[in-house]
Amino acid sequence: MAKFKHLLPIYLGAIIGPLGGVGMITLLPVLAGEWQVSIQWVSLTVTLYMIPYVVFQLFSGSIAHVFNTRRTLLFGFGVYSLGGFLSGFSPSLETLVGARFVQGFGAAFIAPIVLALVGEKVNPERMGKAVGLLGVMYTIGVTMGPLISGLLEVYFGWPWFFFFLMSFALAIGALYWVTSAGDDQEANKSGRLWDALALVKQSYSYSDVQFLSFAAFFLFMGYIGLMTFIADYLKTSFSLSSDKIGLVLSMTGFLGVIASPIAGFLGDRYGKKIIAYAGKAIMVGSILGLEMTEYTYGRYVVLLAFFGVGGATAWISLNTLAVQIVPGLRKPVASVYNCLKFSGYALSPLVLSIFYVPFSISGVRFVCIVCILISFFLTSRIRSSLA
Description:
The chain is mainly alpha-helical. It has helices at 4-35, 39-42, 44-66, 69-88, 93-107, 111-121, 127-155, 159-179, 184-187, 193-204, 207-238, 242-270, 272-292, 297-324, 330-380. 86% of the residues lie in helices and 0% in strands.
């Protein structure tokens, strides 16, 4: 088992993606009002962040596998920090979109590598618990992102959320640079870029990797789609302030922090697929609860808390399979998996806006349920004995 000081920056690095991604949702209606544009245009700050995040994530794990893991991850922290700096000083929507592209490019060199590193440094019999703890960190990012962005926007202005992200990434990068100093020798490998591309193709050739990755794609589309348009729905329909919207959205993570390690333990004991099914069933039930009851602030807090429990439970199982399903190709498989998984995040705001405009939040909820059910079916097609 790796020492805690070596795992700490890896686990903290897992917070960065959801913190900067989900935290942006709270700011969408604020930026739409400031620049007098529709929510669809402002959602480009999510999409143009996710495009490089998705595209380059497909190759970043393989690049780290072939060349140098430590330098690749440090590169990711540095570019992500630069993107936060540029975002905070953006004078217009166009420049903010460009800065978010830079930030997404940096994040692409963080997410799959920290997932794979946990798989490499932890004993296989404790993998579920270890990935469960990683899930806690993801969930902390989901929880704190909307809350931090909402509070910083209300009290200091929206740019300060990006300055916070910049500082946070720099601090974690510095910690990883210190604690991983001895990893340089074992990480130095000779290879060619073509070798990295070949690993991507090899990883995707496994049918279980395909089913797992697309299951994550549809699950993320349903998960982020609901949260994105609930933020705008609460702002436009009930005139809630950013901090109150941030608190509602952050409820998806509070109970998820507790659920993640429990889901990891149960996945080790009863099987990952069974626990994934349970999580997705909770998500569907929570969405139906939102649709079938009248709005009250307290009711939304409770139902989104249960939605977060379901999401955390499902994600732990899928993420654990991603680092176990092909042990010899952990980084390339994690890249393929995360690439398709976060493609659901990238496409969700644009695709679901087609239903949100004519059918309001009810149309979005229906499509989110369909996406989760598709993910349920794809998970059932995974045949690995590890599932």
